[in-house]
Amino acid sequence: MPATSPGTRNARKPRCEDCFFHQNMLCALEDKRPCPTFRPAHPDGLRPPRQLSFVFRQGRRADAFSFEAPGA
């Protein structure tokens, strides 16, 4: 039996029938496979896709842009 990671064991492939746009009759495509605009249908409506959060690094240097003098 091949080893599977926990995330892939229960992961389902997205289907056109599971798309928000298909369920609300907003899809204009005739192709019945997930497209790049696929958004999962949720009971509370359309949600934007999750994005990475931006975190600033701690301990910034005060002389971040110090350069050597020309001709030194």
Seen as an oligomer or otherwise, the chain set is single chain
Helices, by number, come to: 2
Which percent range fits the helix content?
10-25%
Let me know the largest β-sheet.
Answer: none
Q: What sort of overall outline do the alpha carbons produce when their principal axes are compared?
A: elongated
Structural class based on helices, strands and sheet pairing: little secondary structure
User: Distance N terminus to C terminus?
Assistant: 66 Å
How much is the average pLDDT?
75
Count of beta strands: 0
How would you portray this structure in words?
With 72 residues, the protein is largely without helices or strands. Helix content is 11%, strand content 0%. The chain has helices at residues 6-9, 20-23. The longest helix has 4 residues, at 6-9. It is elongated and about 70 Å long. The chain starts with 5 loop residues before the first helix and ends in a 49-residue tail after the last helix. The model has no long low-confidence stretch (mean pLDDT 75).
Kindly summarize this structure in a few lines.
The chain has 72 residues and is largely without helices or strands.
